Structure formats: structure tokens, C-alpha cells
Amino acid sequence: MAQLFTHLQRIPLLPCKVQEARKFMRLFSISAQKACQVRVRFAPSPTGHLHLGGLRTALYNFLFAKSKNGKFILRIEDTDQTRLVVHAAQRLEDMLKWAKIYPDESPTVGGPRGPYVQSQRINLYHNYMKNLLENDSAYKCFCSKLRLDWLRNDAIRRNETPKYDNKCRYLSQVKIEELERKGTPYCIRFKLETITDPYQDLIYGPILINVAEHEGDPVMMKADGYPTYHFANVVDDHLMGITHVLRGVEWQISTPKHLLLYKAFGWNPPLFGHLPLIVNRDGSKLSKRQDDLHIEHYRDQGYSPEAVLNFVTDIGGGFEGKEHNVLLTIEELSEKFNLARLTKNSCRLDFDKLKLYNQMDLQRCLKSPTELPVLLDQLQDLVKKTFEEK
Ligand code: GLU
């Protein structure tokens, strides 16, 4: 059984890779539908509240999975231990539940490809790191903080973008052994290759970013033994059988690097689509620190999950035959979801719409014999809480 599981982990479930799917089906005699099953994930870092951008990513992944009879996975990416916020992971999962975005696999639900918290998968990353060192796609970097700071300041002084100069890529074996004998701390870097071909973004079309031109070799494993985001993210997407990665456009710049990692491992990559930026109504950038962008804030203000979800989908597009100002349930949203209808235009927030959808949802509840009593209970609680002292 253990052997079967390791094997399962190694085979990516790509719907479009017919050969892979056939191989998979032959090996385990499972149905075509299962072999081609869509598996998507929401992979937040537990560094604070769930904000609108995060909710949009989770929701679109969920709707896509449901529209394809696939699975939606929640994975907590907590490898940057310096940025952790206590209870943030649990709060994120609670808020998804509040919004009726139920993961099929997650830290609390569990599932066959867990654990779903990266800090519980550290040994696994070390094993995969060995593969990259062995096939010469990665190397140990012994540069001190002092040297790296000097490199950075020197670049800034010359008005250039700071980047690592890949010095340790060229260390001799004798030198490496000497540094190791002395116990010099090291991190592990990935050798960036030149990219000449674009990749096909599901939303933005062909994207060509030659990372090696702008960046030095990136760190994959820090000196403290923790993997960086890029490494853990790619290893986990592969092991968890992720078929499509839908994430915010701010991650688009990382994708070529991730594709290089897939190539170095000899793995089939998932398909990538990046969701356009969410901006204020006037087109200005949102700030993560804005309190009114937290989902908890909307819940506490009395907005219903349906109102928030319709508000979020209204700005983003991606639906077939969805009229504006018509409130849909999450099931109706998933029926109408169509990835091909997503555009690259930035999404402008219009908070008047949120109020409008909330009013519409209230009216819907007032007419529903099952929801009316729930609403009345909530109202009673609210009155009690508000007038307690009086
Ligand atoms: N941990 C990343 C985040 O905080 C995940 C990005 C991705 O989806 O690859 O958003």
C-alpha cells in the first residue's frame, strides 16, 4: 500500500496529458474520469486575515473544481516562520467555511495527499532537494550575509537591480568539502536556465519572462533547513496532483521559475492561469492593511456570505450568462463558471454593489420558510447584544 501511495504521488493528474492519464489508468485500472480529475488548490500563508483577494482566489478555484466535478484543496504554506500569525491558519479555514467554500481536502478535513500544512512536510522537501543536488540543478551556497549585503548595496549604488552573482555555482568540489568540514552554514540555490519560449497562461496568453536575466539563482532551501515558497510550492503541487494553478497575477513573475523547477525534476507541470489585479473603484492599489478588506469585517458588519460572494464574482467576470445585479447561490455560480470568460482587465471594487447584494439576499431570506427563522434568531441576538446595557 505504501508503495502504491508513493507511486500515486509521483504521477501528476493532467487532464490534457492523454498519455499520462492512460499510463495512470493502466497502472491502477481506474476510470477515465478519475484519471483526468481536475485538482486545484488555495495555498495561503497564515500571516493574517483572509482578505478579498484571497477570497477571490479561493472562490474561483472552488467554482472551477465544482464546475468540472473536481477537487478543491486547501494547503497552508507556513514555511516562512518569521511571518506566522498565531491561529491565522485556523481562522482562514473558518472564514472559507463561513463563505461556504468547503475544501475537499485540508488540514482539518484531511485527505489522501496530506499533511496539508507545509511545516509538517519538511522531511519530504529534504528528500526532493537531494534529487536536485544529485542531478546538478542545484548547489550549496556558502556566501555570508555580509557578502550578500555588500552585493546589494553595491548594485544600489550603481543604480542597478540587486541580484546574487551566482558565485557559489562555480565552487570546486575541493572548496565545497573544505567549507563543509569547517561547518560553514549554507543555503541551497537553484540554477536558473535561460528561457526562450513563452508559456501559455490560461488567462493572459503567452508569457515570456527570462528570469535568469533579471535574477540571480534563487534560494530553495534556507540555512535553517526550511524550504522557500518556490520549492515547497512546486513539490507540493506535484505531489498533491494539482492540475491547474489559478492564483493572483502578482505570482505570474514566479511561474517561469516554477516551470524550470518542474523541468529539473522531470515532472509534467500543471496549467497556470493568473487572476487579474483587484483595485479600488478609482483604480488605485488596495492595501493589505485596509481593515475593510477582511472577510471577517463583512461578516461582523452583518453581510451574508452570498452577498460577499456575488460582490466578488461581479467584479471578476468568468461567467456564462450571469447578469449583473442578480443574486446567485454558490451552486448557480459554479454552474455558470467558465474560465475562458475571465479577462485580464483589473477588477474595480464597487462597495455599493455589496450593499445592494446584501439587500437582495435579505429579501430572499424573508421569503424563505427555512431561512426566515434563522434570520429572526440572528436579529434577536443582534438586538440583545446592542441593547444589553440598556
Ligand atoms: N503561499 C502563497 C500565497 O500566500 C501561494 C501562492 C500560490 O498560489 O502559488 O499566496
From TrEMBL:
GO terms for biological process: glutamyl-tRNA aminoacylation. The keyword Mitochondrion does not apply. Its EC number is 6.1.1.17, 6.1.1.24. It comes from Homarus americanus (American lobster). GO terms for cellular component: mitochondrion. It is found in: Mitochondrion. Belongs to the class-I aminoacyl-tRNA synthetase family. Glutamate--tRNA ligase type 1 subfamily. InterPro entries: aa-tRNA-synth_I_CS, Glu-tRNA-ligase_bac/mito, Glu/Gln-tRNA-synth, Glu/Gln-tRNA-synth_Ib_cat-dom, GluQ/Sye, GluRS_core, Rossmann-like_a/b/a_fold. It catalyses: tRNA(Gln) + L-glutamate + ATP = L-glutamyl-tRNA(Gln) + AMP + diphosphate; tRNA(Glx) + L-glutamate + ATP = L-glutamyl-tRNA(Glx) + AMP + diphosphate; tRNA(Glu) + L-glutamate + ATP = L-glutamyl-tRNA(Glu) + AMP + diphosphate. Signal peptide: none annotated. PROSITE patterns: AA_TRNA_LIGASE_I. GO terms for molecular function: ATP binding; glutamate-tRNA ligase activity; glutamate-tRNA(Gln) ligase activity; zinc ion binding. Pfam families: tRNA-synt_1c. PANTHER family: GLUTAMATE--TRNA LIGASE, GLUTAMATE--TRNA LIGASE, MITOCHONDRIAL-RELATED. Keywords: Aminoacyl-tRNA synthetase, ATP-binding, Ligase, Nucleotide-binding, Protein biosynthesis. Residues 37-355 form the Glutamyl/glutaminyl-tRNA synthetase class Ib catalytic domain. The keyword GTP-binding does not apply. Coiled coil: none annotated. This is Nondiscriminating glutamyl-tRNA synthetase EARS2, mitochondrial.
